[in-house]
Amino acid sequence: MSETLEKKSIAASEIIEAIKNAKTAVVTAHLNPDGDTLGSMLALAKVLEDFGLERVDRVMHDEVPAVYTFFPDQEKVYCSMQDADKAQLLDEYDLSFSCDCGSIKRLGSAGNIWEKAKITINVDHHLSNPLYADLNWVDAEATCTGQVVKDILNDLNKLNQKQLEIDKDLASLLYITLLTDTGGFRHSNTTPHVFEWAAELVNLGAEPSKLYNLLFNQMPYRTIRVIGDALDSVELVTLENPTKPLSIAYATTSRETLEKLNAKDEDTDEIVDHLMRIKDVDMCIYLREDKLANANYKGSLRSACEVDCSQIALQLNGGGHARAAGFNCDATSFEDLKSRVLEKISQVLS
């Protein structure tokens, strides 16, 4: 394949045909959900229902984070860690979709449900995605996974006599995915096309000011305290580099701290972005002690230099973008994992 492996891999016709012939589907999101994975999951489920599938279930490992309970249809999400929720699901679906996820492991316990479908489908926009499903729609040029969902909707409309429409709820979900992955239209992936699509979604009912405030300006008090604790622990690390020394901001949050502050994992999501606000910092590493069965640490990486975060994260059971990536892996301590990450960065630099 050419053109960046055809923008990675876009099996559009096969996926549209599979949807056309299906009656049931399950749609999943990755661990520690952000606005793009949750928003695109809910948007895709709504599209499949509107297209005419008899049953579409929304499932993920985590419960919906409190900060995202304003998302349309979020109350329909099943938690695969809860027996009562799992009892409501089918033993097998015609189709399963993962949204904005770099691996089956990143689906957590929802991956067990995803894998049992007759046809598995991977919907994403990360260049680091390893194409792990039967069918993959991974567009590395898309700004967010919500944009891939929009493309699926457009292709379904090409063969559907009754055109699928984008109502206010769907427009809001798609706008949220765009807002999340551009960092509120601040990141380098904010192109002219992004503003054109945002304007289209606003015309369809998305409310920019309301959605921005709900997404970014409604942190619980405990969240502010967790962020403050992590920022209090920040240290600056310098790595040698042939051109100039690399300045890296590093911070952590322990399980003990989360329990002491009565905080949740989701309360740490913004910390890594605060680290990148430090003047003259080239990269940042944020580590949180986790409690997953297959990984006891979660890491987040950001880069404003030549180091590709996604390549580092891939080696640690994660993935993402060149400038922003994450991972979940095992380690004996914060220092152990910090040393491993710094070593991998040094290898890239050398």
Layout of helices and strands:
Layout: H1 3-7, E1 8-10, H2 12-21, E2 24-29, H3 35-51, E3 55-60, E4 77-79, H4 83-86, E5 95-99, H5 110-115, E6 119-124, E7 135-139, H6 145-159, H7 168-181, H8 192-203, H9 208-216, H10 221-232, E8 235-239, E9 246-253, H11 255-260, H12 271-275, E10 283-289, E11 297-303, H13 309-314, E12 318-320, E13 324-329, H14 334-349
Helix pairs in contact: 3-6, 3-7, 6-7, 7-8, 7-9
Description:
The chain has helices at 3-7, 12-21, 35-51, 83-86, 110-115, 145-159, 168-181, 192-203, 208-216, 221-232, 255-260, 271-275, 309-314, 334-349; strands at residues 8-10, 24-29, 55-60, 77-79, 95-99, 119-124, 135-139, 235-239, 246-253, 283-289, 297-303, 318-320, 324-329. With 350 residues, the chain is of the alpha/beta class. It folds into 2 domains: 3-164, Alpha-Beta Complex (inorganic pyrophosphatase (n-terminal core)), CATH 3.90.1640.10; 221-349, Diaminopimelate Epimerase, Chain A, domain 1. The chain has a 7-stranded mixed sheet. A 6-stranded mixed sheet has the order 8-9-10-11-13-12, sandwiched between helices. A hairpin with a 7-residue loop joins β10 (283-289) and β11 (297-303). α3 packs parallel to α6. The relative contact order is 0.11. The mean pLDDT is 93.
What keywords describe this structure?
alpha/beta, 350 residues, Diaminopimelate Epimerase, Chain A, domain 1, 2 domains, 7-stranded mixed beta sheet, inorganic pyrophosphatase (n-terminal core), 6-stranded mixed beta sheet, globular
